[in-house]
Design brief:
With about 130 residues, the protein is of the alpha+beta class. The chain has five helices and nine strands. Helix 2 packs antiparallel against helix 3. The two termini are about 25 Å apart.
Amino acid sequence: MLLGTYEPNLIGKNRLVLPAKLRKEIKGNRLVLAVGFEECILGFEEKKWQEATAADLAKPLSDPEGRNLRRRMFSQAVQVELDSQGRLVVPENLTSRGEFKDEIVVIGAGDHFEIWEKKRWEEYRSSTLKTG
């Protein structure tokens, strides 16, 4: 299970060293990164991505909601590989969407991790504490 909050830095060309505690929980070196619903990046093991999106793919193409969800989830998703030191490159189409700077937060979210711009994460967290 992916747990915790971490503050690694993006290095070089959008390269991220995934925190060791998260890497230990990930099987294999292939990940899927996708646009999140709250302007973050979602990160899944390839198999977990397939499991998480199976219900979306089960909706018929004749259903407008099913088509829209597929387009949102899959059109900007990319497969990436962790290198031997746990680094991955976050593609430009994902970093620009989340307005990432040098300060980011990586959170464990159970079956996946999320990459947030630090200020946006703090705002989101603060707003959920007020409403929750």
